[in-house]
Design a protein that fits this description.
Length: about 550
Amino acid sequence: MAGRGQMPLMRPQVIVLKEGTDTSQGVPQLLSNISACLAVCDTIRTTLGPRGMDKLIVDAQGRVTISNDGATIMKLLEVVQPAARTLVDIARAQDAEVGDGTTSVVLLAGELLKEVREFVEEGVSAQVIVKGFRRAAAMAIARVGEIAERVDRGDADAFRALLEKCAATSMNSKLIGSQREFFTQMVVDAVQRLDQDELDEAMIGVKKVPGGAMQDSLLVDGVAFKKSFSYAGFEQQPKAFDAPRIACLNVELELKAEKDNAEVRVARVADYQAVVDAEWQLIFAKLDQVLAAGANVVLSRLPIGDLATQYFADRGVFCAGRVAKDDMDRVCAATGCRVQSTTTGLGAAHLGTCARFEERQIGGQRFNLFRGCPQARTCTIVLRGGAEQFIDEVERSLHDSIMVVRRAVKTQTVVAGGGAIEMELSRHLRAAAREIEGKQQLIIAAAARALEVIPRQLCENAGFDTTDFVTQLRARHAQDPERFKWHGVDIDAEAVADLHAKFVWEPALVKINAISSAVEAACLILSVDETVTSQQSQDPMAQGAPARR
């Protein structure tokens, strides 16, 4: 024991982290993460629903994007706060998994955090909140499975009507909402032309042609792609065939240019001529083999030079080089041909066919169209429109609708949109919370309140009286849950109505995935109590090579 006159011993300071490293921990850090997530939610909050606003985003390269798609906006925002980037990830996951509900999943995750912020400030353990959220999510997903309505695929007309309603609902909040009847037919036709077991969306090609109106867009029952670069002699080739024989190659059909500083030593002029003749004989042998196989439409991923172009033109054969890989894959899937890496042994068994091939002018561009394909498991949507940003947004809207219809085909279960399912789940969780004791009751009740953000935001974006509409919805769902379970916000009629009867339908998987993703994101953010940021990650110049001394 030290005497009174002695100085107390100083404890040595232990340095674990590198100098300059920033650390934040505890409740203040958790509240900071929640605030960052709420700021991101406020950015896209106004884009929800049929009356949602668009966002104009200019990136670092000066490219302008106009969109109200949640996943697109989240991706372009370039969120740097580590915890808030979780919301970007769930928006992307929702877009990749089901295509629709990207804005809803972000808003729901933010509202869950907002509702439990008070509990965090009062010292409730984050693990208690996480346990309550996961319990609430399990009950909500089970309730969706109970009340979702299944449609039998045996009735083709009824099933197609279901798909059209789902596609129209996803288009309501998009730029193409005014033309949803036109595009609904196009989307459903496109999905039904795919292989119904695989439903590979990559087999639906989308080509954009500036100019014209949206109604000039068309669906090609087969494959369509832009005319590739062509050499002299292309104009002399035939531009249409009935029942063509199609060869798809991965072969370069042009004379090779001499390498720089190449040297060939010959003793006689005849020897030099033999070298030149051998090169010509090689390419003519390839062309003769293609012609002998019986092909009259030749496509290649690699260039087809001027010599080969004129050769095919003289013999009434159409050719196109530098065809994109995705276009070539869809041609093979539609016509039954196989890509060949050599012309040796090329025969009729390797060729494909279709009812008609033609080159056609669409807008200011030439397109190659393959129609009436016998093995058609693919199709192409050619989009028309004014500004380039407008066509890009139409493409994103159609992608969401295509994904929704795909999921409806696979799951065959639907629920009503317009906030109806969220209000029913909110009522269900409130009733369940009353039967639970302890802190879990408060957490589940908070999750029930968070679900109301969807109908509330729909009303707010449409300019309705939010308090009045949400109160009406609560009263109806509590009064008779079985009778009013599909009642939600009818934007067109500006009233509370049965949206199932008005065919505002969505695949149940959209809601299930949104609830599970939002809850998992909220639980992940609540589980983080410390953030360690190195000085190097804060310095933008430190990403490359080390600085010179």
